[in-house]
Amino acid sequence: xxxxxxxxxxxxxxxxxxxxxxxxxxxxxxxxxxxxxxxxxxxxxxxxxxxxxxxxxxxxxxxxxxxxxxxxxxxxxxxxxxxxxxxxxxxxxxxxxxxxxxxxxxxxxxxxxxxxxxxxxxxxxxxxxxxxxxxxxxxxxxxxxxxxxxxxxxxxxxxxxxxxxxxxxxxxxxxxxxxxxxxxxxxxxxxxxxxxxxxxxxxxxxxxxxxxxxxxxxxxxxxxxxxxxxxxxxxxxxxxxxxxxxxxxxxxxxxxxxxxxxxxxxxxxxxxxxxxxxxxxxxxxxxxxxxxxxxxxxxxxxxxxxxxxxxxxxxxxxxxxxxxxxxxxxxxxxxxxxxxxxxxxxxxxxxxxxxxxxxxxxxxxxxxxxxxxxxxxxxxxxxxxxxxxxxxxx
Length: 394
Known about the structure:
Elements: E1 5-11, E2 15-20, E3 25-30, E4 33-35, E5 57-62, E6 71-75, H1 77-80, H2 98-113, E7 122-124, E8 127-138, H3 140-144, H4 147-156, E9 160-164, E10 174-186, H5 187-196, H6 206-209, E11 213-218, E12 223-229, E13 232-233, E14 239-241, H7 246-260, H8 267-275, E15 282-285, E16 288-291, H9 293-317, E17 323-327, H10 329-344, E18 350-352, H11 356-360, H12 362-393
């Protein structure tokens, strides 16, 4: 029997958050890719293996699930420095984009190639055969449209190969990725699981378990509003919208470029400017500290109003709602604007997570809880079947 390793991966528009094994490994990788050539130039090639693989992900990806196969990419931090880097576009479906799969496969390959996992997977002639039991998710809108079924079958039905090219420590290694099982969860449901249950799916928040709750998950490309009652997501009332923070971040980036002549590498740079603790909403222009408050406030307030309108509409249709939790990276960006609107308008009972990491990692944590529980139950079932087989033989 082959070893299978647990993986819980949230391919968010801004970044990939991934948890592995018995929570013995985690990755946070910017969701940015850039096409590249095989022999990318490296200054100080002899120092390559002293750097972190996460800072130099350079791979060729082969998978029948991809629209464009056998293409070479820079991924993550390395891609943000490229002129031709791409991020997911507003209006796109996560389940149908090559970029989602490339980020997923790259993250799994990084885990498989890690020397501390050498005893888990077979390796011969620099080729690693890696089996995973994967928990991941899609926006509520895509799950309601049935796109999770095709996405899961694409992953399960094939071997997906990642070849590390000019990547620190892993140059020349190939990883063949197979999935023993793939569970694709709706993002709103996952957020609820994370709110009320621990890693063993024991209830940790009894105050919430029987409340009527909204969970507004604001991502880069979409917003999911899950309606929770009787401990379940109400599929009919839950809604997903093609409204995330990416378009607004792009608008801020463009206006900073046209007004101040400053070229920011990616949307991540914009997020850092508007969320950091020191010098928030300031950039350096020709060596001088310059405020961009006027740009960020105007654009983000407009987006916050649209998000608030969605909250109001859903709450009106679910009038017995007791609280709405705002989660996701987009919620962290818009937090102060939504709070200000709520204080001056309807005064709903809303809650944000003050711990930024908890909010951003919520989906990955939820997938981990769910896939761990599935794996435990699966192992129990197998033990029972084996015991029954032995009993029949005897």
